[in-house]
Amino acid sequence: MAEINTPLVSDEELALLQTRVLERQSRQVVATTYGAGQHRSRFRGLGLDLEDTRPYHSGDDIRHMDWRATARSGKPTMKVFREERQRSLFIVADRGPTMAFGTRGELKAAVAARAAAILAFSALAQHETVAGLVVERSIRFFPSSRGLNQTLRLLKTVSAPLPPTVNELTPTQTDDLFSTLYQMASPGSVVFLISDFYFLDGKHRTALAELAEHRHVVALHITDPAEDALPNAGLVRLVSPVTNEISIIDTSDKTLRHAYYHARSQRLEELNNLFSGGGIPLQHLYTNGNTFAELEEVW
């Protein structure tokens, strides 16, 4: 694979994406002031939403007395509210060898970078924290921050030119990825996995389920249209992004195209089962699609 000398997403586009996100946020009704979260937490305390009631304890603030429940039961009863806390966004961006592919004018890695930027700017606009892991030659961690400069360091790393060669993740490195993610993504955070997920298989079912047990995990599957169906383009020379092995295939062969379509369908079904088993939503983003519009369903 030849080195790409320009960023996947330029500084100018990052600024434009930030502006679009802010414009989108400004059109939404904001019910909280600066510094107050917009998402319900798992912690109970004093907030806006009534969660439950409980018996009165000495020292309780009588302003939170549930007078109707007290009248019905004849016993002092207190309101219990669900506290509103800020949500934490955790981005995992894949820059592995299979992400350096695209047949519609854009690489899958560029779509991943753009999606990461949209999600990060949206989180900052809602005064949420942003953290992340970038997976390339190694796993690079960016600690949680509410600041634009730190978030831009994460986004510029995701958007940087791809290196000339990157090895596929080994099983040990994949285990390390999930272990690091489990440790760094705090319970209650929202985790976006952005990848084509070629490194995942059934062995990772347990790791995904454990990750999603106390976090809201969303999988963003980056896909190029040529991966869904092998086009009839005659003889095609292919180079493996992992091994650099060269193959020449005859795409005019209907049997070959059917076999490819069947294998691809099986792989997509495997991914669906893998994520659904952990209760993880799976959203597809295409290299020839509108990433901003495609993300509307999940952010």
Strand arrangement across the biggest beta sheet: 6-5-4-7-8-11
Low-confidence spans: pLDDT under 50, at least 5 residues?
29-36, 40-48
- Largest sheet, if any? 6 strands, mixed
Q: Give the topology string: H per helix, E per strand.
A: HEEHEEHEEHHEHEHEEHEH
* Name of the top-level CATH class of the largest domain: Alpha Beta
The CATH homologous superfamily of the largest domain corresponds to von Willebrand factor, type A domain
Named at the architecture level, the CATH assignment of the largest domain is 3-Layer(aba) Sandwich
Q: Please give the domain count.
A: 2
Q: Report the count of strand segments.
A: 11
From the alpha carbons, calculate the radius of gyration and give it in angstroms: 23 Å
Descriptive key words:
single chain, 299 residues, alpha/beta, Rossmann fold, 2 domains, 3-stranded antiparallel beta sheet, 36% helix, 24% strand, elongated
Describe this structure in words.
36% of the residues lie in helices and 24% in strands. It has helices at 11-26, 67-73, 108-125, 148-159, 171-184, 205-213, 225-228, 254-276, 291-294; strands at residues 39-45, 49-55, 77-85, 88-94, 129-135, 139-145, 190-195, 216-223, 235-239, 246-250, 282-286. Strands 6-5-4-7-8-11 form a 6-stranded mixed sheet, with helices on both faces. A 3-stranded antiparallel sheet has the order 1-3-2. A two-stranded antiparallel sheet has the order 9-10. Strand 5 (129-135) and strand 6 (139-145) form a beta hairpin. Helix 3 (108-125) runs antiparallel to helix 4 (148-159).
